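Prompt: I keep going back and forth on a fold encoding question. Comparing notes only helps if you start from a blank page. Show me how you would write down a chain together with its backbone fold. Please set it down just below, with no commentary around it:
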Amino acid sequence: GAWVILGKFFMSKWVLLLRGINVGGKNKLPMADLKSLLTAEGALDVHTYIQSGNAVFSSSNLKADLFSQNLSKAIDNSHGFAPHCLLLNAKHFGLAIQNCPFPKENSSEKILHFYFLSEAPSEIGVTNLDDLKIPSEQWSLVGSVFYLYAPDGFGRSKLAAKAEKILSVPATVRNWRTVHKINDLLRD
């Protein structure tokens, strides 16, 4: 009894964001398989959200880099591709929402996007980013999150398509709705 309670006390919540899975019929990874792979790596209380590779789980003593590498290898062994696995602790994920510089009440869920970067970029081509954006678009970089407000459509945005290359840091993108759904899973 007491050890179980103590164990739960030392658990940390984590967010996993996979990049480039289940897109256009490529890199197929059913969420049930992801859940099994996470559990095999020691993740507890695993919850997934939609098919784009989002998961929330608990763990104690997790070393994020090693966990990400091991999970990517496990996916490669079982499904034949090794996706970029970005792990964020719950606090970091919450700060990404809190630090969003754009007014949430004016944002539709699909026009505000969060680029979660594997690290803060050392140097960015601000001029290059501004040259690509159209007048209605706005962007901001706060630490290791690049925010893009694209009211005329994310899919048609040149800035959306080239931001990662200009930032020179691996990224995975989620829209406002997905970020909030993941955050809801963290609170459950």
Observations:
- The radius of gyration is 17 Å.
- The first helix runs from residue 2 to 9.
- The CA atoms of residues 63 and 131 lie 39 Å apart.
- Residues 1-7 have pLDDT under 50 and may be disordered.
